[in-house]
Please model this.
Amino acid sequence: MTRARRILLTGGIALAVFGMAYGMWYAIFAEHQALEDIGVSLSTAFSSAARRDTAESAAAISRYQESKYVYDRQVDVHGHWIGLAMVLIVLGLCFDQVSFSEKLKIWLAVGMLAGAWIFPLGVLLQAFGHGPLPKILAISGSVLEIAALCFIALGLARGQSSVSRS
Model:
């Protein structure tokens, strides 16, 4: 097995296990509290609106918005880590068909693996702070993933075109 292929397969399996463990931790220890915050804030918003207390209703809607934002980021992270892990594993299975030098394939595999960790990590950090660093990480990780995928697609197409000419 080539080094690039090993990076994708072992990295993908490790990322899948990590993503599943994170999802299990979140489901057991944090999700119920998040859903309760969402429900309570909505209930408060509606009951305040019924009493025509617009200030309390607006504050409850604001709490709902923040709670839902954090909840969505937590759930997205779990799904992205596992989904990207599956992409790494599938690519690892066919990576020998990529028509590039082994050195370039190693760089592409490392880029895919790094992007698959960094992009969801940036999304997760957005749940804890709205500053620029989490957004920069999420964008950088996704750009790394997209760029590596484009090069891999090019390498697969080059390999297919050389097979067609034979």
The mean pLDDT is 94. The first helix runs from residue 3 to 29. The radius of gyration is 21 Å. Helices lie at 3-29, 31-50, 54-94, 102-126, 132-165.
